[in-house]
Structure formats: C-alpha cells, structure tokens
C-alpha cells in the first residue's frame, strides 16, 4: 500500500514515515499543502494523511482538491484543533477519519488499517486466498497453517496482491504502489520480488497461487495454472 503524508512538523513527519515504512507501507511525504496537491496530480495513493494547518495550502484545500477530482482515496486528518465543530467540519468536508494531536502511533496505524479495509470492502484484517492467510494488523502470514517469514517489501507486495486477488496487475502498477519516489533500484525489481514470494508462498505446494500473465503482469488467484 502506498501512503502520502503531508505534515509541516518535520519531526512528526519523519516519525510517521519511519513507522509506516516499518509496517510495510510505501511512503512519500511533503511539508506543505501545495506540494501535496502537486504530488497528487500525478500519483495515485491508497490513503493520504493530511495535517490541517499547513503552509501554502491547508488540509481542507488539499482535501477539496482530491474530492473535486472525483478521487475517493481515504483521507485521515491530523490536527491540534479538538473542538466538536472542527471535527464536524473535517468529516463533512470529505475526510474519512480525524485524529487529534497528540496521538499514539498505534492508534494512527489502526485507523489507517480501518480506512483501507473499508476502501477495499473488507470487514476483517484477515485476508485469505485458498489456504494462504495474511493478518494486516499483526503481519502474520501462513499457508496451510505454516507460518511464512517475509521481508517488509515481500509483505507489502503480497498484501497488495491479496487486496487485488483475481486482478491482473502490471509490473508498472505494482512498482508504483510498492516503491516510493526514493527508490533507485533495478528495472526488474518487481520480477525479483515476485520470484522471492513464489519461493516462500508456492514452493512445495501443488496448487500455485501466484501466476504470470504473459505480456500483462501478475495475478494472485486460486487455480491450477502455473
């Protein structure tokens, strides 16, 4: 999942980036509302975390920009304002959730997971395809009851595939969702990580779950095709 953080408090911004990156998200960040709108013009995110009081353009302006583009990306507002009227204004403006500073990182992550579940039509943190399960809250992955240890990027890739099970995802789309702007690796990074996942997810199982669709990309589904 790819997340944008727009927060002008640099220390908090960096803490959020570090925490969400550790949790397996691909994270881009900026420090003012205008830069956020510039980024959102050409990049699609799974969720946006917006501070309300930012220079150049506030969070309400950024949210309005998002919604005027018919973009239903989940938005979580961060603010030091704690009055009921401020919270109502934020939610009525199209925000999906509202978190008052100071807050715990655990609560922010839980609210983010909740928004992402809703946006994907899920009612549980547990994703499953066949005998493969993934717990979005604990990052526990298992197949046929056997735990599988994944790196943060392997986990992020598997979670993205499972959120989109049955859908063919191009290499470009996968790369754009899993790696942020700072990535400077090789052009075959998606193929490399798919091969890592296959060894851990499909090796030793008669029924493979990760499939290549020649000329189009990859798909996670339960069938017998290789």
Automatic annotation (TrEMBL):
It comes from the Bacteria. CDD domains: trans_reg_C. The modification 4-aspartylphosphate is found at residue 51. It holds the Pfam family Trans_reg_C. PROSITE patterns: OMPR_PHOB, RESPONSE_REGULATORY. Residues 124-222 bind DNA. Residues 124-222 form the OmpR/PhoB-type domain. The keyword Transcription regulation applies. The keyword Transcription applies. Keywords: DNA-binding, Phosphoprotein, Transcription, Transcription regulation, Two-component regulatory system. May play the central regulatory role in sporulation. It may be an element of the effector pathway responsible for the activation of sporulation genes in response to nutritional stress. Spo0A may act in concert with spo0H (a sigma factor) to control the expression of some genes that are critical to the sporulation process. This is Stage 0 sporulation protein A homolog. It comes from Hominiventricola aquisgranensis. The lineage of its organism: Bacteria, Bacillati, Bacillota, Clostridia, Lachnospirales.
């Amino acid at each position: 999942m790819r997340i944008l953080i727009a927060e002008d408090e640099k220390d908090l911004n960096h803490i959020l980036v570090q925490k969400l990156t550790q949790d397996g998200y691909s994270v881009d960040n900026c420090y003012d509302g205008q830069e956020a709108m510039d980024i959102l013009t050409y990049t699609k995110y799974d969720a946006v975390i917006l501070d309300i009081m930012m220079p150049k353009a506030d969070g309400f302006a950024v949210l309005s920009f998002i919604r005027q583009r018919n973009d239903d990306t989940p938005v979580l507002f961060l603010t030091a304002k704690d009055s009921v009227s401020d919270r109502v204004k934020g939610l009525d403006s199209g925000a999906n959730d509202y978190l008052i500073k100071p807050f715990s990182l655990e609560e922010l992550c839980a609210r983010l997971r909740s928004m992402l579940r809703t946006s994907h039509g899920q009612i549980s943190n547990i994703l499953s395809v066949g005998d493969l399960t993934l717990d979005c809250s604990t990052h526990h992955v298992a197949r046929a009851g056997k735990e599988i240890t994944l790196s943060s990027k392997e986990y992020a890739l598997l979670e993205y595939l499972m959120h989109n099970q049955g859908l063919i995802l191009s290499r470009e789309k996968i790369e754009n969702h899993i790696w942020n702007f700072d990535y400077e690796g090789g052009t075959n990074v998606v193929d490399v990580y798919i091969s890592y996942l296959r060894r851990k997810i499909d090796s030793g199982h008669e029924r493979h779950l990760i499939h290549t669709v020649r000329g189009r990309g990859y798909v996670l589904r339960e069938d017998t095709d290789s």
